[in-house]
């Protein structure tokens, strides 16, 4: 899987775990929900670190917790 797909999947997992929707996450993260939708619909294939940081703030987690998932195991990520 690609890194962008892993990020998208992780956001979807956290939305479900935290019982949030994209609008709720956008409000709590202080970013436009359209930015999050762009990531989830693969329109934005390379979200920058600042966007990911704010998404993590919206979820109430750290970047370390975000990336602490088997999705980001190097053996699972393709060079794409």
Short summary:
This protein has 80 residues and is mainly alpha-helical. Helices cover 59% and strands 0% of the residues.
Task: Report on the architecture of this protein.
This protein has 80 residues and is mainly alpha-helical. Helices cover 59% and strands 0% of the residues. It contains five helices and no strands. The protein has helices spanning 3-17, 22-29, 33-40, 49-59, 63-67. Helix 2 crosses helix 3 and helix 2 crosses helix 4. The longest helix has 15 residues, at 3-17. The termini are close together. The model has no long low-confidence stretch (mean pLDDT 93).
Key phrases:
mainly alpha; 0% strand; 5 helices; 59% helix; 80 residues
Q: How is the biggest beta sheet arranged?
A: none
User: How many β-strand runs?
Assistant: 0
- Series of H and E elements: HHHHH
Give the overall pLDDT as a whole number: 93
Q: What separation lies between the terminal Cα atoms?
A: 9 Å
Shape: globular
Strand content of the residues, in percent?
under 5%
Radius of gyration: 12 Å
Helix content: 55-70%
Number of contiguous helices: 5
Which ranges are low-confidence, i.e. pLDDT below 50, for 5 or more consecutive residues? none
SSE-based structural type: mainly alpha
């Amino acid at each position: 899987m690609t890194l962008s797909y892993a990020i998208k999947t992780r956001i979807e997992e956290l939305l479900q775990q935290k019982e949030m929707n994209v609008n709720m996450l956008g409000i709590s993260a202080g970013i436009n929900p359209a930015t999050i939708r762009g990531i989830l619909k693969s329109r934005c294939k390379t979200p920058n670190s600042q966007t990911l940081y704010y998404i993590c703030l919206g979820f109430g987690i750290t970047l370390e917790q975000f990336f602490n998932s088997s999705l980001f195991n190097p053996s699972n990520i393709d060079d794409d």
